[in-house]
Amino acid sequence: MVLFTQMLNNSPDLSDAIYRSKNIFANSLDSDIFWSGRNFVIPFFVIIDILIVFWRLIRRYRQMQLRHIINELHYIANGNYDYRIPFELRGDLSKVVDSINGLVDSTVAAIEDERAIEKSKDELITNVSHDIRTPLTSIIGYLGLIEDRQYQNTDEILKYTSIAYKKAKQMKSLVEDLFEYSKVRQPSVPVINVSFDMVQLLEQLAADFELEAKKKDIQILVDTTESQLVMDGDTEKLVRVFNNLITNGLKYGTHADKIIIKIEKAKNEAVITVQNNGQPIPREALDQLFDRFYRVDESRSQEISGTGLGLAITQNIVNLHGGYIYAQSNEDWTSFIIHLPLHKNQAKALSDNR
C-alpha cells in the first residue's frame, strides 16, 4: 500500500489517468464510494491476506494430518496388526485412512490363512507319519522274524506274512486316500457332469454292498417315493461319496442292523440321507467329523482299518458339485445328509442361498 501510494504521488500522469477512469466508472454506477482508497483497496488486500492465511492454515493442517497418518502406518508396520487408525477425516484423506485400514485387514487375513495352511501342513505330516509308521513297523517286524528265521514251522511263516500283507494293504489304502484327497482339493479339479438317475445309482450301490452287509447282519434299504430322479453330476465322484458313507455305516455303526438310504426331491435339490441305527456319535464330535484324519476314536486304533480321510474326501466332492453335507446323531439314528443341485446351472444358486 505504501509503495502504491508513493507511485501515485510521484506519477501525476498515472494519478490523473486513474482519477479519470475512476470518474467514468463511478459516474456509471452513480457512486464514488467503490473507488475510495480507504473503502476499496484496503478491504481488497485484507480479504486477499485472509484467504492466503486460511489456505496456508488448511495446507498446514492437512500436512499435520498426513504426518499423523504416516506415524500410525509406521506403528502398524512394526507388527501391531491388531491396531487400526482410529480418527475420522474428510475428503481424500478419509479415503486414504479407509484404504489403509482395509489393507491391514486383508493383510491380517492373509497372514492368518498362511498360518492355517502351515498348521494344516504340519498336522498332515504328523498324521500321515503316524498312520504310515504303525503298519510299517508291523511289516518290518514280522518280515524281520522271517528274515532271522525265528519261526517254528510253515504255519508261523504264513501267519507272519498274512499280518504283513494286511498292514501293507492299510498303507496302500492310506496312500490312495491321500492321493484322492489331494486331487479333490485342487481348485482346478475337473467335474465331468453327465445326466443320470440318482435312484438307480443308489439302488445299484445298495446291491453291491449287500453281501458285505449280510456278513455283519446289516440290512441296506433304499427309501424313496421317487420312481426316478434325473440330475447332473460326476457319477464317478458321487459313487465315491456314497461308497464312503455306506462303508462308514458298516465299519463304525456299532450294533447297527439297518442302513437306510433316503432319496427326496426338494424344489431344485436332491436330498440324500444315509443313516444307520448304530451307536450314536457324541455331540462334540459331530462338527469335526469332516476334518481330515479325525476319528471319533481318539486313540486312533488300527483295529478298525480307516485313514480318517473318507469324510473329508466326501465333503470336498459334494462341495465341487455345489452342494453341502452335514451330520446328525441321536439315540435312534446317525444320519449324513447331502443337498445337491439337480442341474449344473443351479449349483451356483444353491451355493449363494447357503
Which secondary structure elements does this structure contain, and how are they paired or packed?
Elements (H helix, E strand, L loop, with lengths): L1 H9 L1 H18 L7 H41 L14 H56 L6 H32 L8 E4 H11 L1 H6 L3 E6 L5 E4 L1 H18 L5 E9 L2 E8 L6 H4 L23 H11 L3 E6 L4 E8 L5 H7 L1
Parallel strand pairs: 2-4
Antiparallel strand pairs: 1-3, 4-5, 5-7, 6-7
Catalytic activity: ATP + protein L-histidine = ADP + protein N-phospho-L-histidine
GO cellular component, one term: plasma membrane
EC number: 2.7.13.3
Under the CATH scheme, the architecture of the domain at 194-353 is: 2-Layer Sandwich
Number of distinct beta strands? 7
- Count of helices? 11
Biggest sheet strand line-up? 2-4-5-7-6
The assigned structural class equals: alpha+beta
DSSP helix fraction: 55-70%
Average pLDDT, to the nearest integer? 80
**N-to-C CA distance:** 76 Å
> N-to-C SSE series?
HHHHHEHHEEHEEHHEEH
CATH fold-level assignment of the domain at 194-353: Heat Shock Protein 90
